[in-house]
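Dear H.,

Thanks for agreeing to be a second pair of eyes. The structure we're designing against is below in token form, covering all 755 positions.
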């Protein structure tokens, strides 16, 4: 018991001390909340840097607008400008936006990291809203509006009647970095000192290369060049779409461009092409497809792009200058020279680069001849601008790892751009490229993106050959069809397209949209003549991208049946156009396949027409298309061709065979299309349409090219008035294409070629 007494005393002593140990710290005095702004006014002005980005400037404007809307008070705004020799003011009341010259801004910025922002109240007269970068500053302002003004932009109301902050506060916020869209303004090239086409080719190739992995890089490159580029960017930035939530950073000058992209340019390096052998420009582009080397024309003038890049320390990775002489053996190979410097360059590229390029795509785009001032092609061109040189299209070449060439298919005259070559060398080179690609594709269909550049080379236009442009087109189509190649025909004009490296990565969202079909069946009457009008020619992504925004907003659309000829294979390159179309269909919009189906071929020249049928199946079923709007062939319709199209388009098709207007194969009708009416042609057009329909076949289809719905409506109304007033025997009725082909079936008319 004696031993327990000291322990008991110790425990009592500890117990007596416990209350003092468990006492809480004295409560902090309430922090002083200061009213920053209310409906009664504010001592504070909003201040941004005198030299500020558009993002910071718009952030300041946004804050002011939200305060005005929520509290009915217009805050003063200013910049941090001070006269030379004057001190930065310290006694003014300011909400500082971004990195101003006030010391409080620098102090707040110093502790931040990427994807962080700060809202601080370091002294009685300074509030700082700043981010690690301009995007962070934007996020700081948005957080401030949402959490301190408690402003709902949708309703235009705030939950508070004043903004109050605690003195000494310093909130650090974080955010997930959104995708950045570097939007290149057209001033990047047209206000630069460089050859415009050379520069656009250069940065379009860079765009295509960088956009391959845009998600991993955290940014995508977009060109704001033609009138539809803003429309499509706005569309793909819409809710739930490809670039939803992305942030636009505008690149407004060539200086901005190099400030942004020079590190990538230095990493990739240059492929220098020879202005004396202009086909090397396409070889340089192909090297970009394979290795990322960026094409630039060799030009030592102080204002040239080449000199500028060399001064910036960009390394040369591939030198194509003075490499090809058109004799002996092609350098770096054991291939005998073709006798043409132009074609030797392509054979070199076939040997060194071709095996690493896309095995299902080829690209037919202009080489550098029309951007070299000393070249005759440049000197005779109607325009030497980058668009006419197709330079904007190179982003898609590089994105697809494509092989690109520029050769004439005509072997009966020496081409205008290589007057010293042996006759037929261009054509032999073209055949060689097609043969090698056909072999790589294992006999499957090859996609050929491009079109004979008749506006610049190879035909009677500008006195560059004996062929007319349409004959050159037909010849090229026949040649590629023999190798099972199908053309996506970026014909003039526009023979170019921006941003395909962006669009092709868009994922469609409207594939479950049902196709439009007529709701009522019409009975065939012998005293009636029926017609429809085809809206083409959309076998080109460039044309489709260019036309749809305006034509689908035309007030006449929906008021009468319209047959839109949209090649379904274009959904590979411009899928967002098809999504937009499907979202905006009316019950009078009938979408059919355009020229030849899923691409432009000469069906009778195909090496394996069964491969063509197989190639069409997924495209036609993707959009539930039952009609091919225009079968173009250099030969007349045959049982072999129509039997193939019975499988591709079982509802029926329209064709260009003038030898017979109406064929039928196992009940599937093939109706001739009158080519190229002008809906605005008035009386002359109506007379031509009437004469065409004045025959034993009471059905007609008329082709238009890139015409608006209002043009078609005017033409239909005018023609119906004309025809019904001139013909007492027949009535004339305008119908949709499905109804027209059904009426053909009901009539029992047409030459049967099913055997």
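And this is the sequence the design step returned. I haven't edited it by hand at all.
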């Amino acid at each position: 018991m004696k031993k327990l007494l000291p322990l008991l005393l110790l425990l009592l002593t500890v117990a007596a001390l416990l209350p003092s140990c468990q006492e809480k710290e004295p409560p902090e005095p309430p922090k002083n909340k200061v009213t920053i702004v209310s409906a009664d006014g504010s001592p504070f002005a909003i201040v941004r840097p005198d030299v500020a980005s558009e993002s910071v400037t718009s952030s300041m404007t946004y804050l002011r607008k939200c305060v005005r809307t929520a509290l009915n008070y217009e805050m003063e705004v200013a910049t941090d400008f001070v006269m030379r020799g004057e001190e930065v003011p310290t006694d003014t009341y300011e909400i500082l936006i971004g990195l101003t010259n006030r010391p409080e801004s620098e102090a707040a910025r110093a502790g931040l990291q990427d994807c962080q922002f700060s809202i601080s109240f370091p002294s009685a007269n300074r509030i700082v809203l700043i981010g690690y970068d301009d995007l962070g500053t934007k996020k700081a302002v948005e957080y401030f509006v949402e959490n301190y003004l408690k402003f709902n932009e949708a309703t235009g109301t705030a939950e508070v009647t004043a903004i109050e902050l605690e003195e000494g506060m310093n909130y650090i916020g974080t955010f997930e970095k959104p995708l950045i869209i570097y939007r290149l303004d057209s001033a990047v090239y047209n206000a630069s000192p460089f050859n415009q086409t050379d520069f656009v080719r250069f940065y379009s190739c860079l765009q295509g290369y960088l956009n391959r992995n845009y998600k991993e890089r955290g940014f995508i490159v977009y060109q704001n060049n033609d009138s539809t580029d803003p429309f499509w960017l706005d569309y793909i930035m819409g809710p739930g779409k490809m670039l939803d939530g992305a942030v636009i950073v505008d690149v407004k000058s060539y200086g901005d461009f190099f400030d942004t992209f020079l590190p990538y340019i230095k990493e990739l390096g240059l492929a220098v092409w020879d202005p004396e052998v202009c086909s090397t420009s396409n070889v340089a582009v192909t090297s970009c497809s394979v290795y990322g080397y960026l094409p630039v024309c060799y030009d030592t003038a102080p204002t040239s792009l080449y000199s500028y890049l060399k001064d910036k320390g960009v390394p040369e990775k591939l030198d194509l200058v003075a490499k090809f002489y058109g004799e002996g053996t092609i350098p770096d190979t054991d291939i005998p020279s073709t006798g043409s410097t132009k074609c030797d360059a392509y054979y070199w590229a076939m040997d060194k680069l071709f095996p690493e390029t896309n095995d299902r795509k080829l690209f037919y785009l202009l080489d550098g001849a029309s951007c070299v001032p000393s070249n005759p092609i440049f000197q005779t061109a109607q325009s030497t601008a980058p668009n006419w040189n197709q330079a904007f299209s190179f982003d898609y070449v590089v994105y697809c790892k494509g092989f690109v060439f520029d050769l004439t298919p005509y072997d009966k005259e020496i081409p205008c751009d290589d007057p010293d070559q042996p006759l037929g060398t261009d054509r032999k080179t073209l055949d060689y490229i097609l043969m090698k690609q056909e072999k790589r594709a294992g006999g499957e269909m090859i996609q050929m993106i491009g079109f004979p550049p008749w506006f610049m080379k190879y035909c009677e236009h500008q006195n560059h050959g004996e062929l007319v442009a349409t004959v050159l087109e037909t010849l090229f189509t026949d040649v590629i069809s023999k190798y099972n190649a199908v053309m996506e025909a970026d014909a003039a004009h526009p023979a170019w397209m921006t941003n395909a490296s962006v669009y092709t990565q868009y994922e469609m969202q409207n594939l479950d949209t049902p196709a439009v079909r007529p709701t009522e069946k019409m009975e065939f009457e012998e005293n009636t003549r029926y017609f429809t009008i085809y809206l083409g020619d959309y076998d080109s992504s460039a044309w489709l991208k260019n036309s749809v925004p305006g034509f689908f907003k035309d007030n006449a659309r929906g008021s009468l049946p319209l047959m839109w000829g949209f090649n379904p294979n274009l959904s590979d390159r411009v899928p967002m156009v098809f999504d937009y179309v499907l979202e905006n269909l009316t019950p009078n919009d009938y979408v059919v396949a355009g020229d030849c189906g899923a691409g432009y071929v000469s069906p009778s020249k195909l090496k394996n027409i069964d491969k063509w049928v197989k190639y069409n199946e997924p495209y036609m079923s993707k959009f539930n298309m039952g009609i091919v709007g225009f079968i173009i062939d250099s030969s007349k319709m045959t049982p072999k061709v129509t039997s193939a199209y019975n499988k591709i388009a079982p509802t029926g098709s329209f064709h260009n065979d003038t030898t017979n207007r109406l064929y039928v194969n196992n009940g599937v009708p093939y109706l001739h299309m009158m080519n190229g009416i002008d809906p605005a042609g008035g009386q002359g057009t109506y007379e031509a349409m009437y004469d065409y329909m004045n025959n034993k076949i009471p059905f007609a289809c008329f082709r238009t090219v890139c015409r608006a719905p209002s043009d078609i409506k005017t033409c239909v109304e005018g023609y119906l008035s004309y025809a019904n007033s001139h013909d007492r025997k027949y009535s004339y009725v305008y119908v949709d294409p499905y109804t027209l082909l059904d009426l053909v079936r009901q009539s029992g008319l047409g030459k049967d070629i099913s055997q």
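Two observations from my side: Confidence is low (pLDDT under 50) at residues 1-24. The radius of gyration is 34 Å.

Warmly,
E.
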